[in-house]
Design a protein that fits this description.
Blueprint (H helix, E strand, L loop, with lengths): L1 H4 L19 E3 L9 E3 L4 E2 L68 H21 L11 E5 L3 E5 L2 E12 L12 E9 L7 E7 L3 H8 L5 E5 L15 H6 L12 H19 L4 E11 L1 H12 L5 E5 L17 H4 L52 H8 L3 E7 L7 H17 L18 E2 L4 E6 L9 H13 L4 E2 L4 E3 L7 E4 L2 E2 L8 E6 L7 E2 L5 E3 L14 E8 L8 E6 L1 H5 L4 E9 L5 E9 L5 E11 L2 E2 L5 E6 L4 E8 L9 E10 L2 E10 L8
Parallel strand pairs: 8-9, 8-10, 10-11, 11-12, 12-14, 16-23
Antiparallel strand pairs: 1-2, 2-3, 4-6, 5-6, 6-7, 7-9, 13-14, 15-18, 17-21, 19-22, 20-21, 22-23, 24-25, 25-29, 26-27, 26-28, 26-30, 30-31
Length: about 700
């Protein structure tokens, strides 16, 4: 793969003379200086194949509270492996990075409306993630067929709660390449509460976790559990890339740089389980309330799967670290350069991810870096990662506005505790833009150990402990339960509106309902060929047409909009509505008239008459056929105004004799007119003016 992308591993100097060597570190073994190093606090310090040493230093704002392991320096909120007497701007304070503005498109255009997010910015992020980071999944036309089977039901109990167990197997056809060495399959154990048999319940799919470990947390809430074995779909090794699912699709050939890695294959298998639950219509499983959970490498796969498949209703990507839940641009603990090494986890990612290892400027990775001040340990920075247009919080943003939760542990600093929290912070503006809440930790300035921050739609907990997910499972369940107990709103199906049936800018108002009696508080356009032409009032569901000139007046097929609505917690299904331009094709403009007067020196009155077209189509062959002021007629009697486009107007003048009335009296002006296909008219009350001064 490295040959395909043109990347070569550097020849690194001895660690003992490496100019990028972190200060205050030393070999764990004096007789093995090329092995792992450590610092005074016992943290393991490694160097990647690309020459980047892992780092545990940060600026003063980029740290979390310490745990109970005594690794504390200075203030109670400090977690620092070595002190930085020069302050946060020292070259050793390497936690700073350039965040990505998720609400600005690649060309610099801001995201203004929700439909901009759904139809422009979100697809842009997905493309970058798939091209450069995780790889494109195989085209759907290449997906192998899956035959599903369900084993016999058995019963059991765990933590005092009875369950019904079934084994679900998805047999993946190898007909397209029978020679594949290892046949992939989708296997899972489904547990549903025995006491709720026949009731559709939420189901949490877990990657690589046994049901018995987590049943105690979810059973009391009436959830089901489905333990899914991702490595039956794709092996967790580079050697497996020409076998299992990826090898099957590629017919035994090695990947191309933009092809998916193991994380993408694991995510694919999880999505196929949703396919199964939707098709099977299992009386015990609610396919609209399927969640996904995974820890560590499976936390990465969980984040990816839920970001790409909007059918997952809720999720818990646990402690995903580098290439997952932690901000990749930060330089802390586990690094991209460590993942993308020839002996490590490169098989998780797309081959193109190799293009972002190494320093952004200067000589090749691992060689001596020199600047105007000589060499220093920060010379490796900034990294090529700065060129990548996506990061972990891009994935969290793709989950919006659905509920998600993540975590970290005090004894798990290598995965970057603060960087995982920062991912939730940096994704929060997208949640808020879409009408939901991001992560909320106020009034705390930073997350406090063992406090569950679950009042927003992104949850976070920083537990006192190591690299585990079970310590935060109760907080995740507590957060998700009211969300899942709430019914999704319903946008009424079959709604159609007709252009020209009312005022030009107002099309109509969408209707929906909620089984809980909640008011629908947020409406959004997600797609359709009417995007960019019509707008939707986010609070009321009213559809408007800001610029009538954008409408194709020759169109006869209805415009479509894909919309959805929220009650502030759950979202409806995507619903298509139509807007029929039949009135445009028939030509049904709506004309209004206005008038203003002046009095001439001879005592006559001059009216300036404006005729405006507030309809959807062009008003053709418009004529004023008559005009009167009080009891007298105007001259000329018929005034041609020709064609008037939508929102356009034409003005003309009409003269009335002095017998129309005395200045200061109130009279009524009446106007009539015709156009191709209709008539119009109006009555205008006016006070006759005095003589205007001579010009």
């Amino acid at each position: 793969m490295m040959c395909q992308v043109g990347v070569t591993s550097p020849a690194l100097p001895s660690k003992l003379i490496d100019p990028n060597q972190p200060p205050d570190t030393f070999p764990k073994s004096a007789t093995a200086p090329q092995g792992d190093w450590q610092n005074a606090y016992g943290h393991t310090i490694t160097r990647s194949d690309w020459g980047l040493w892992n780092n545990y230093d940060d600026d003063l704002n980029g740290v979390l509270p310490s745990g109970s392991d005594g690794m504390t320096l200075g203030a109670p909120d400090s977690w620092r492996v070595f002190d930085d007497p020069s302050g946060p701007n020292s070259p050793y304070s390497q936690g700073s990075y350039t965040p990505i503005d998720l609400l600005t498109m690649d060309d610099g255009t801001p995201v203004v409306y929700p439909e901009d997010w759904w139809t422009k910015r979100r697809p842009e992020i997905v493309k970058d993630l798939e091209t450069e980071m995780y790889g494109f999944p195989a085209d759907q036309s290449l997906w192998p067929a899956i035959t599903w089977s369900v084993g016999p039901s058995t019963s059991g109990a765990n933590s005092g709660v009875a369950y019904i167990q079934r084994t679900i197997t998805g047999t993946i056809s190898t007909a397209s390449y029978p020679q594949v060495r290892n046949k992939p399959s989708i296997t899972c154990q489904l547990w549903t509460p025995a006491a709720l048999a026949g009731t559709k319940v939420p189901v949490l799919i877990t990657l690589g976790n046994a049901n018995a470990s987590y049943w105690q947390f979810v059973a009391s809430q009436g959830w089901g559990l489905c333990s899914y074995s991702p490595t039956a779909v794709q092996a967790d090794s580079g050697a497996g890339l020409s076998s299992y699912l990826i090898g099957l699709v590629n017919k035994g050939q090695w990947r191309k740089p933009s092809d998916w890695g193991a994380l993408g294959a694991w995510a694919w298998g999880a999505s196929r389980l949703i396919d199964y639950f939707e098709q099977a219509n299992d009386p015990n499983v609610d396919a609209t309330r399927i969640g996904l959970e995974g820890h560590s490498r499976y936390g990465k796969a969980t984040l990816l799967a839920v970001a790409l498949d909007q059918r997952f209703a809720f999720s818990y990507p646990s402690s995903g670290g580098a290439g997952g839940t932690a901000v990749g641009r930060r330089h802390w603990g586990e690094e991209l350069e460590g993942v993308m090494s020839g002996s490590s986890e490169y098989h998780w990612m797309a081959g193109n991810f190799f293009n972002y290892v190494g320093p952004l400027h200067g000589p090749a990775p691992g060689t001596v870096s020199v600047d105007g001040n000589g060499t220093h340990p920060g010379a490796y920075l900034p990294r090529k990662y700065e060129n990548l247009k996506v990061d972990s919080y891009s994935l969290f943003a793709l989950i919006a506005p659905r509920q998600t939760f993540t975590n970290s542990g005090t004894h798990d600093s290598w995965e970057d505790n603060y960087g995982q929290f920062r991912s939730t912070v940096l994704a929060s503006p997208v949640y808020e833009f879409l009408g939901m809440k991001g992560v909320i930790i106020a009034p705390d300035p930073k997350p406090v150990v063992n406090v569950a921050y679950i009042s927003g739609d992104i949850g976070f907990r920083y537990h006192d402990g190591g690299h585990v997910d079970n310590l935060d499972f109760p907080a995740f369940v507590q957060m998700a339960t009211p969300y899942l107990n709430d019914h999704s709103p319903i946008v009424n199906a079959g709604q159609n509106f007709t252009l020209g049936a009312g005022p030009v800018h107002s099309i109509g108002t969408l209707k929906g309902s909620d089984l809980d009696g909640d008011r629908l508080v947020t409406w959004q356009i997600k797609g359709g060929d009417g995007v960019g032409i019509f707008r939707l009032n986010a609070s009321t569901g009213a559809i408007t047409l800001p610029d009538p000139t954008l409408v194709d007046t020759s169109r006869t097929m209805p415009y479509t909009l894909t919309v959805w609505a929220s009650d502030g917690r759950r979202w409806s299904k995507d619903t298509n509505i139509t807007i029929t331009p039949a009135a445009i094709a028939a030509g049904n403009p709506q004309l209004v008239t206005t008038s203003s007067f002046t009095k001439e020196r001879d005592g006559s009155y001059l009216a300036t008459v404006s005729v405006k077209n507030i309809g959807m189509g062009t008003a053709k062959n418009v004529y004023l056929t008559g005009s009167s002021l009080g009891s007298v007629s105007g001259s000329p009697a018929s005034v041609p105004l020709v064609n008037i486009p939508p929102e356009g107007f034409v003005s003309t003048t009409i003269s009335f004799p002095p017998t129309a009335g005395v200045a200061g009296t109130i009279v009524v002006e009446k106007l009539t007119g015709i156009y191709t296909g209709g008539t119009f008219g109006g009555s205008i009350r006016a006070i006759l003016p005095n003589i205007q001064p001579a010009s």
